[in-house]
Amino acid sequence: MRLVPRLGSGIPLVARTHEMRRLRAAFARAERREAGAVLVSGDAGVGKTRLLTALGEHVTAAGGLVLTGRCIDVRDGGLPYLPFAEALAPIGSSADPLVAAAVRARPALARLLPQSGEPEPAVPGEHGQVSANEREAMRRPRPEQDLGQLQLFDAVLGVLTEVAESRPVVVLLEDLHWADSSTRNLLSFLLSRLRAQRLLVVASYREEDVHRRHPLRGLLSELVRLATVEQVALSPFGTADARAFVEALADEPLAADVVADIVARSEGNPFFVEELLATDADCRDLPAGLAEVLLARLERLPAETRRVLRVVSVANEPVSHAALTAVSGIGELELDEVLREAVQHHVLVIEGGNYAFRHALLQEAVYGDLLPGERTRMHAAYAARIRSVQQGRGHDAKLAFHSLESRDLVTALPALLRAMDEAEKLGAPGAALRHAEQALSIWDAVPEDGRPEGVDELKLLHEASYFAGTSGEPERAAAFARSATEALKPEMSSDRAAKVWRRLAEALLALEGTLDEAVVAMDKAWALVKDAEPSATRAWVLATRAGFQRLVDRPDEALDNALAAVADARTVGSAGAEASALITLGTLADSAGDAEEARERLRQAVRKAHHGKALNVELRGMYFLALSYDDQAEMTDALAHAKRGVERAEESGLAWSSYGLELRARQLYLRYLSGDWPAEDAAGRAGRGVSSAVAARILANWALFLVARGRFEDAAKLLPGLRQHWVADIQIALSSGDAAIELATWRGEHEEAVRVTEELVAWLEKMEPLLLGGIRIVTLGLASAVARAAEARAHGDQAAAERMTEAGRRLLEHARRCAKDGAPRSGTLGPEGRAWLARAEAWGSALEGPADPGLWAAAAEAFGYGAVYEQATCRWHQAEALFAAGAAAAAVAPLEAAHAVADRLGALPLRDAVRDLAHRARVDLPGVTPVSPHPVPRPMADPLTDRERDVLERVALGRTNRQVGEELYISEKTVSVHLSRVMAKLGAGRRAEAVAIAYDRGLLAAPAPKD
């Protein structure tokens, strides 16, 4: 996997905006002769070097002098003043006569600096290591060893003060935790005498290495009491920033599971993220280089401490003192001292009275370093202790884990089954599935007399299929269900066999393209119970069969079977089966146009399913209830029911079951239509562990938000991966296709938009002819056909104009056929379908001449049912048509209405298009400052380089990174690097924000008005 180039520690600076502002503020004070110091602390790899590097770039851009020195890890002897010698080397070799005079005036300083012909101190590697030859060269006795320290200290302070008279000076000292005593003394002297110099000292150190007895600890406690010294602590990324960092580093889209795994394992440490990501796409194994770095920290600890750390690593969770005593075999008092050593060196932390590794990857590294024999023995010891203590939540899962790892399968199998049942009760189907799969994997290896009573392989397969389906893995649910049918034996009861075939039918129903196979499975289930007496199994089969018959457009048979299911269910008291049948009766009523009866049936079904604890049926009822209101464009009620359904799915642990997913996808789309746009990207991500097709269902809807908000690069990165999932769910094709067409249209790539539209329409016709969603798709493509035809006419390309006009006619005709011959769920075309058809007719009016303002007004009115973004888009085009028709006064109101919505939603492309139209029409929009036609003079203190400005100017014009690179003849990656630096300098978190700040500060000339 390719990565973007690393910058220091690889951390994107925008994630450290707060810390960077503090450092810049300290530098600003130094410029005003308020000298100061900042101590930057944080774990290894958290981004200290990158932060200091960025500060150095900022200082250099502002005309300051940056002096950098680094300490290195030399265990067998110190290197006196190494970081100061490195930092002051540029002063000693400076050609500036004033600086040279300042150095000559201080003989003590001259002895510290490299002599003529002597090499400068080596720059250490990434982890502070140097070669043996370099270390030996730096060990040479220096002349300052026989010079009084005070003279040397005064010389360093004096030369820095004098140089700072001509320009502000920033001294950057890295890795103070490795500093020798002389360096610490000089630093203490320097910081205690900061007064009115134009001087800033910034020093970094690893907090995890500065344990209680570390010599730097005492110095830090003294320094922080000085008024001129402040502290900046760098924490690991939070989840959102870590996720953004992973996605920014990856050169290709990553599966949601992979991203979540890297975020969790790295715990937000940028260096760990890079190392994990650089390994492979799955990142399951700890990289050897990272493991060595982590284990190197432990080499300095006593052997007994390392032994106990190995014991802790096997626990795989925070472990109690009593458990460590039992498993390690070390006495209480000795164990106390060993644990104290580990805690003081920041290897272990105390969580709720238990001990855990400070970082999960350190636990992985220690565990991975165990020998096979000791690993097995320790797991067995933990399992023995778990069996001996009182049972509680998670007891069986822990016992199963350690028994599996120690190969005690007879103990592991029943423990797994108990853990599976517990996970189901706790609403954790994903965990239940893992336990079921583990039980299946060892089933044949456990002797028959060691298997629990009442459980066989068929039951486990049935359970695994159910848990896979309810945890967002429909493909695996179908695979387990198929295996269960293959495991059926002739001597098994028809009741049990019917359950197996019904489970297969339900599992197949969640997949695209398997309806015929599902109907066959359902018929087999029905044949097994058709002539049986009423029972819960028969009631369930009838209810499920009724639902299938409705899907294959056999409403009369569906009605008969649903009523029979209700009768059987009431006879045997199966509330879940009755609720399932009532849902089918409700959906049949909706299709017949009786919304009132439909909703009453559905509400009754939801209540019965809730009381009968049939959670999946309850969610199904809530989904169809929300859909009933959605069909009639009753947006408020539809959103409310979808929201309640999502909340119920989440609290019951079924968030990613079939109908949990449908509810979430429907809620997200309704929020898009209604203008209730989520602020966080988390709304567009699927849960961890779900299949790629399930994740794509949510991401396809999220792509609509990305395009509408102008996040074109994010959308372009996402959409190709969604294309492969069209066959998994037709809704993925509709939503992602919609986003792809709109993306191409906003980018002005109208030929591409028409091509994508025609490709998608052809695909839809093969899958489900005259689908009503096709009206929306062809209408979006029709917009680009009209725009491209107009462009071609303007350039005299009559052939292209005729080709696009003909394509537009075909698309318009397809929209009309979908509206006329499609099959609405409620029997008649609903408000949403009518609105999109009106919009298609409005575009059709512009195929060969000016658009009809009246048709655009009708389209805008049609979207008034609550689709605020689509209505705003229509009002923009209505204003365009009115201006073109010479009705400028009438155009102002729809233009202002469109701008108000786009501005509120943050729909940047629409907002900018409306503003551009207003500017060309000489209309002042409320709350928008008119754009000056004259360039703003560039300020004197300009932080941007010429190349950075070239990049930002093209970004301001809407170019992608690739387009910018092509125009400037540089790589796309180089463009990304320049943009990162620009955002860092301007304190911006996004490209658009950087452009806005640059305009506000006059760093970019305002765009000239278009004729």
UniProtKB/TrEMBL annotation:
Is the keyword Nucleotide-binding in the record?
yes
Which GO BP terms apply? regulation of DNA-templated transcription
* Listed CDD domains: LuxR_C_like
Q: Which residues form the HTH luxR-type domain?
A: 937-1002
- Molecular function per GO: adenylate cyclase activity; ATP binding; DNA binding
Cite the SMART domains for this sequence.
HTH_LUXR
Output this protein's name. Regulatory protein, luxR family
Which species is this UniProt entry from?
Answer: Amycolatopsis saalfeldensis
Q: What is the lineage of its organism?
A: Bacteria, Bacillati, Actinomycetota, Actinomycetes, Pseudonocardiales
